[in-house]
Design brief:
Chain lengths: ~300, ~300
């Protein structure tokens, strides 16, 4: 900062202090809504806490974590989302984007049709899919019946509940599709021409030109979607509640992850433990588990950012 | 395509090229038909859910319980019944308050932060950006328990204020998006304003803001929609009384209270979705631009 040879312009001086001033509300926000709660979470995790009494119990909450079968269940469910739902959604968005940019007629209309579902309010979309996939009267199984196929129980069958939500996720892939479209259109045209002259077919062109050129965006999409999968909550919660026909909005009779805990994700279980059973201390242990996992993926994402910013 | 003016190729070669040209043209036409057919088929599948909702929303109670796909009679009154049987307008009002105040607070607080991160050179700038991305990526559930306890002690649970007030201190996603955009504004503009004697505030208001209008519009729309559609936040804080719910919460409980009436549930779903679609059509360009802005440049 200190200039030896040439003094910086007058208006550059004291920029650090001025920046601090500009950032101070946000710094306060981060401290209050991020740093403080994170430290409290660690503190509470060593206690039994039900919002009224606070009792130090050492590592008991952590010991319980190892015995809690539902942590294993939710971890398996999350792994399913990460390994199947995320790649399926990203791949589908990419294919859709490729398709749309190749269209010559009706591009605007088709692009709008593919984009719109991603704007449908999450609750509305989820209820819609529970309705569409209703095993008895839902239109999807009706249409399948025309072809003589017996549709599954969808949201009522633990084996099909996650695939059902994956279909919802594919339906709402419009935002990702637009991002991929932008990336694909950014690939310089002459690279394709050069590849074509070298005799590369469409698949070879995709592998040798498109893929490397959009790699940063693809990686970004994968990691953000994995982080999103770790946070997966609302769709699973609404699907469980609506499909199980749960009537109590307070949720005291709520069976998390219906059917058969197949939609129980870690955030879901955390919500139940903390805000239904009021075992806040143990909820904090689950929160720290979620924090650790998310941090790993956030760090990978940050590496991507740095690389992308160095390029640009 | 193959014919060049300067050097006419020999006849045999030319014939071959013409032959290839015809074949290539035929292939191009086939590819054209295939891609368009595939796109239209997919588009129909994307539209189908909305069509089925619409049709069911117009059925009678009894018919909605059957497997019929086409309504026998068109019961437009179902929409009115949704308003009678639920507090839909009240929920919309609550949601609007959350979304509108949330958006205003977010802009007021996040624009200056993004400006400082994009323009000032100071030690710890990288760290600050790192913190922005980290808070953006962290599941809200991670810090939910202690924050909830604080709001409970302040007596503000059972309201949407715990969701609105924090936005006065910045929103990570909006800061991130705005910073990315502000970085693309050439430094010369702001430097020139500074040399001319503008203060930081004046530079932001007179030079940066007018240029950043598309980004600000995108951020505003995103924040508005985020709040409008938020389910997790209101689930924690809005409480259980019907008149305090938001649209997303209300719709989720609606099915429970009218468990056999799929027609009403679908009518309510359409009513909740319609405003979003209308806003999209009014602000289409901003949406698409905003989305592409969120992707990193490779």
């Amino acid at each position: 900062m200190s200039a030896v040879h040439a003094a910086p312009p007058r208006w550059r001086r004291g920029e650090g202090l001025r920046a601090l001033l500009w950032l101070s509300p946000w710094i306060a926000g981060v401290s209050i809504f991020f740093v403080y709660p994170l430290l409290s979470t660690v503190y509470f995790s060593f206690h039994r806490y039900d919002m009224y009494t606070l009792e130090f119990i050492g590592l008991d909450n952590y010991r319980y974590l190892l015995k809690d079968a539902r942590v294993g269940t939710s971890a398996r469910n999350t792994l399913w989302l990460v390994l199947i739902m995320v790649p399926a959604t990203v791949l589908f968005s990419l294919v859709l984007a490729q398709l749309v940019i190749r269209l010559k007629a009706g591009v605007g209309l088709l692009r709008t049709i593919f984009y719109l579902p991603s704007l449908v309010p999450m609750t509305a979309g989820t209820i819609t899919f529970v309705f569409l996939l209703n095993p008895g009267t839902g239109p999807v199984n009706q249409v399948l019946a025309w072809f003589g196929a017996q549709g599954p129980d969808w949201f009522g069958d633990p084996a099909w509940s996650k695939p059902s939500l994956t279909m919802l996720s594919l339906w709402g892939c419009g935002q990702l599709m637009v991002i991929f479209m932008a990336a694909l259109l950014d690939v310089p045209k002459h690279l394709y021409e050069a590849a074509a002259i070298d005799g590369a077919g469409p698949w070879r062109q995709f592998r040798s030109v498109t893929l490397p050129m959009i790699a940063p965006v693809l990686m970004f999409a994968l990691v953000t979607n994995v982080i999103y999968a770790l946070q997966y909550f609302s769709q699973a919660m609404v699907a469980s509640r609506v499909a199980s026909g749960e009537t109590d909005s307070a949720g005291s009779s709520f069976s998390p992850g219906y059917p058969d805990e197949s939609l129980l994700t870690l955030p879901q279980w955390l919500f139940h433990v903390g805000f239904r059973d009021y075992t806040m201390g143990y909820a904090c242990v689950l929160a720290l588990l979620l924090f650790g996992t998310s941090m790993i993926f956030t760090l990978i994402l940050l590496r991507q950012f740095r690389r992308a910013e160095e390029v640009s | 395509m193959s014919a060049t003016i300067t050097a006419p190729p020999r006849t045999a070669l030319a014939r071959g090229a013409r032959h290839d040209g015809a074949r290539a043209r035929r292939r191009r036409v086939l590819v054209w038909i295939a891609t368009h057919a595939l796109a239209i088929a997919l588009a129909l599948m994307f539209l189908a859910p909305v069509v089925f909702i619409g049709l069911t929303a117009l059925m009678t109670d009894e018919q909605a319980l059957t497997s019929a796909l086409w309504p026998q009679s068109w019961n437009w009154g179902n929409f009115a019944e949704v308003f009678e049987k639920s507090l839909l307008l009240r929920w919309a009002g609550n949601t609007l308050m959350y979304a509108a105040l949330g958006t205003v607070f977010t802009l007021v607080s996040s624009v200056p932060v993004a400006y400082a991160l994009a323009r000032f050179r100071f030690r710890g700038r990288r760290l600050a950006f790192l913190v922005v991305v980290t808070t953006m990526m962290l599941p809200p559930q991670v810090v939910a328990v202690p924050i909830y306890l604080v709001w409970a002690r302040l007596g503000l649970t059972d309201s949407l204020w715990p969701l609105i007030l924090p936005l006065l201190l910045g929103d990570a996603f909006s800061i991130f998006l705005l910073r990315q955009f502000l970085l693309t504004i050439p430094r010369d503009y702001t430097d020139a304003a500074r040399v001319d004697g503008c203060s930081d505030v004046k530079t932001l208001l007179r030079v940066v803001l007018p240029m950043a209008r598309p980004a600000i519009a995108a951020v505003a729309l995103f924040q508005f929609f985020y709040c409008w559609n938020d389910y997790y936040g209101p689930l924690l804080y809005a409480g259980v009384e019907q008149e305090k719910l938001t649209l997303s919460l209300g719709l989720a409980t609606f099915k429970a209270f009218h468990s056999v009436q799929w027609n009403l549930t679908m009518a309510a779903t359409l009513l909740v979705t319609a405003p979003v679609i209308i806003v999209f059509f009014l602000a289409q360009k901003v949406f698409i631009e905003g989305v592409t802005l969120t992707g990193v440049k490779g």
